[in-house]
Design goal:
six-stranded parallel sheet; two-stranded parallel sheet
C-alpha cells in the first residue's frame, strides 16, 4: 500500500451520538463516519464515552458500561473496516491492516462511581485514556465550571491509572486542578481537545504555561475543531483561524507535541473541518501555510503515536 498517510485523532463524541440516535458508525450524518473515509488516509479515532455531569454513582457506572458494550458491538459490526486497539504501541500495525482503528476512551471520571477498582476494570474493557472531569467537579477533581482541586480519591485515581497504563487527559480541567496534577503526576499526561487561550480566550483552551508543562513532560495536545475554541466570536471563519493556533504552538516549542483532537460529533465545527473527509484539505492548508510536510506528519500521527508508545513502554 503506497502513499497512505496515517492519522490519530484524540477525541470524538460519535459513540454518544450512536447511543442516543440508535445509529451506527457508518452513518454519513456523523462527522466521523466510516462512509466518509478520506482518500489517501488511514485513521485511528479515539472514541470517548461522554459522561453527563448529572450522572454520579452507580448510574454513572451503568452508563459507561452500556456505552462500552455499544463500542464493542460497533467494532464487531464493522470489523471489515475498523479494529479496536488495546495496545497503544500497535496503532501503526493496526492501520496497515484496515483503514480505521479505534481506541476506547472515557470523557469524565465520574464513570468510576468513586470506586478505585473500576480503573482496572475499565482498562480491562479496553479504555486507554480518561478525561478526568467534564465541566463540573466530580469525585476526582474540578472541571472548568468549578473552582475545586484534586480530592484524596482523585490523587489515588492518578496513581492507579499510571499503574495499569491508562493515560490521564487534562481537557476540561480548571487551572487549579491542572497545576495540582503537575505537582504529583509521575507519567506524561495529555490534553485531547483544546486550543490556545492566547489566540482564543475560551476557558477550555490552555495557556502557554500549561502547554509548556505538557511539552516538558512528553505529552501531547489535540487541536479542537470546535468553532468556539478557534475564534472568540464562535463564527465559522476560515482555515486561517485554526492555523493561527497551530503556528502559535509551533512557535513556543510544540513541534513534537501537537496532535489532532477534533471533537467530532460533540460540538459545532466550521465547514472546513466538519468531517473526516476534510483531513486531506486540512493537511494541504497546513503545508501551504509554510509548515513542512515532516512537521504536518508529526501533527497528524507521529507525535501521538510516539507519546502512546513511550507511555505504554513505561508500564
Amino acid at each position: 500500500m503506497t502513499d497512505i498517510r496515517n492519522v490519530i485523532d484524540l477525541h470524538c463524541d460519535t459513540l454518544t451520538e450512536c447511543l442516543e440516535k440508535r445509529r451506527g458508525l457508518d452513518d454519513e450524518n456523523f462527522n466521523f463516519s466510516l462512509g466518509k473515509r478520506p482518500s489517501g488516509y488511514h485513521l485511528c479515532q479515539c472514541m470517548a464515552v461522554w459522561m453527563p455531569d448529572g450522572l454520579r454513582g452507580e448510574k454513572a457506572a451503568e452508563y459507561f458500561l452500556k456505552s462500552a458494550d455499544l463500542f464493542k458491538d460497533q467494532m464487531m459490526r464493522f470489523s471489515d473496516r475498523i479494529s479496536q486497539v488495546s495496545d497503544l504501541r500497535s496503532i501503526g500495525s493496526a492501520l496497515l491492516k484496515k483503514p480505521f482503528a479505534a481506541v476506547l476512551t472515557i470523557e469524565g471520571g465520574s464513570a468510576l462511581a468513586g470506586d478505585i477498582l473500576n480503573v482496572g476494570r475499565y482498562y480491562g474493557l479496553g479504555a486507554r485514556i480518561m478525561t478526568l472531569t467534564w465541566n463540573n467537579k466530580n469525585e476526582i477533581c474540578g472541571g472548568v465550571l468549578s473552582d475545586s482541586g484534586f480530592t484524596v480519591f482523585g490523587r489515588q485515581v492518578i496513581r492507579e491509572m499510571e499503574r495499569v497504563g491508562m493515560v490521564a487527559d487534562t481537557a476540561h480541567l480548571n487551572d487549579k486542578s491542572f497545576f495540582e496534577l503537575c505537582e504529583f503526576a509521575e507519567k506524561p499526561f495529555i490534553n485531547t481537545h483544546s486550543n490556545s487561550r492566547k489566540i482564543c480566550p475560551h476557558k477550555r483552551n490552555i495557556t502557554d504555561e500549561m502547554f509548556g508543562e505538557i511539552v516538558r513532560r512528553g505529552g501531547i495536545l489535540g487541536l479542537n475543531y470546535g468553532k468556539g475554541f478557534i475564534r472568540g466570536d464562535g463564527k465559522n471563519g476560515t482555515v486561517n483561524d485554526m492555523l493561527k493556533h497551530i503556528h502559535h504552538f509551533l512557535e513556543i516549542g510544540g513541534e513534537d507535541t501537537l496532535a489532532l483532537g477534533s471533537d467530532y460529533d460533540g460540538t459545532d465545527l466550521p465547514d472546513y473541518l466538519e468531517g473526516i473527509d476534510k483531513i486531506g484539505s486540512f493537511s494541504e492548508s497546513m503545508e501551504k501555510s509554510g509548515i513542512p510536510r515532516r512537521t504536518v506528519d508529526k501533527i497528524l500521527f507521529e507525535n501521538a503515536n510516539r507519546c502512546f508508545k513511550n507511555f505504554a513502554q513505561k508500564i
